[in-house]
Amino acid sequence: MSKGLRPDFLWGGATAANQFEGGYLEGGKGLSIDDVYKGGSATVARVIDDHIIEGDYYPSHEAVDFYHRYKEDIALLAEMGFKCFRMSIAWTRIFPRGDEEEPNEEGLRFYDNVINELLKYNIEPVITISHYEMPLALVKEYGSWRNRKLVEFFHRYSRVLFERYKGKVKYWLTFNEVNCTLGVDRPYLQAGIVYREDENISDVKLQITHHLLVASALAVKECRRIDPAAKIGCMLIYPTTYPHTCDPLDQIKARDAMATTYYYGDVYARGRYTNICKAYQESIGGHFTMEPGDEELLKEGIVDFIGFSYYSSRVEGVHVTEYTGGNMQRGGKNPYLKATEWGWQIDPIGLRMALNNLYDRYQLPLFIVENGMGAVDKVEEDGSIIDDYRIAYLRAHIEAMKDAVEIDHVDLMGYTPWGPIDLVSAGTGEMKKRYGFVYVDKDDNGKGTLERRKKKSFDWYKKVIATNGEDLEN
Ligand code: BGP
After folding, report:
1. Choosing from 133, 222, 316, 370, which is the catalytic residue?
2. Taking the model in full, what pTM does it have?
């Protein structure tokens, strides 16, 4: 077998509409759940506002203004040699309330322009259909994904996109980090859900999940019908999880901690609720309703590839006493690893493990659609930004990913690190938590010129892409 990444490896970067675009009321856009959310506290279930409070600052409203600067931004991505660009479409630009019969033409026109601009540079759009920004009206008036009606609305929305972008968009992802919905964190960001006191949380979790899985399966079916040449995948958050010790109880605990990830992964990749799903349903004592035809639909909705995000690993076990932060989930601290300023443990080998675990389990092509290190960047007096720490993080993760391909024979389609141009943090709403190769002049209070500036990592990543990952030297 030949060594190295495939010649058509999809190098790029990843963003999400609500964290990147701004223009939150422009072009007929409706309010999304993220437009009334200030970031930072959605990691625990809480009562959240369902409207905008005048005078308060909302990071997504302007974000970094990709809405008006997409040409300049895409030119920068093209200069780095991007082969693909992962972005999401804001559901509320297309269906401002979510329940309309007809889409908002102005919203579609914005994405026509963005997609055409990308194609002009031969950058393949990789589109997430829903990334943490569902229409607020669907939450307030329908109870969000508790309600089966949402399946119909999402079906209509995704069908409009496949029809409009047939022949132009070759790669689709359904729901971003969908498995967060079952975790303790983020049912709000993912599904607009804040649990009510009068409801059985276990039942609601399973019902929402079933609706999301059915909606995804329908999207897969529609995508194949409308544009058979396109590929459609799922998007899981993947927290590589190590047992704390060799105590067999720790092994079981670490395995159980992956149940919410494989719950989704198994249905997406195997088309049915597997043993791990059933065990999880029983462990939380939840029940949900399936409609006739759902089982068939899940079978037909098997994805073409598995997209996943990987930032850090965690430790689980019965003896864990020290915890640390992480992307959407708290985990046990690992004494062998260093962590970022936000406490996310840096573990490139964890990425190789993730690739192996997912490939062993599903035997479907994989796509790393998020990875990266949030860090505070300093602009030097001469205007330069020397982000060697970012280069070191990405380099180590690319090396690990290459090991998974070259040594372990994992089938990997591409790599899109998070936030190639600085954007708003999903977890905290901060600007100072930066991921980009391109710096954006904006602070946590919304002040700044929005000017774009290349960091040191810009040229480094350009070289990495140009050599298909062969030259990783800083
Ligand atoms: C993922 C989300 C992204 C992104 C990223 C980094 O979970 O899909 O939207 O934000 O994490 O997280 P944060 O922005 O909290 O640093």
Report:
1. 370
2. 0.97
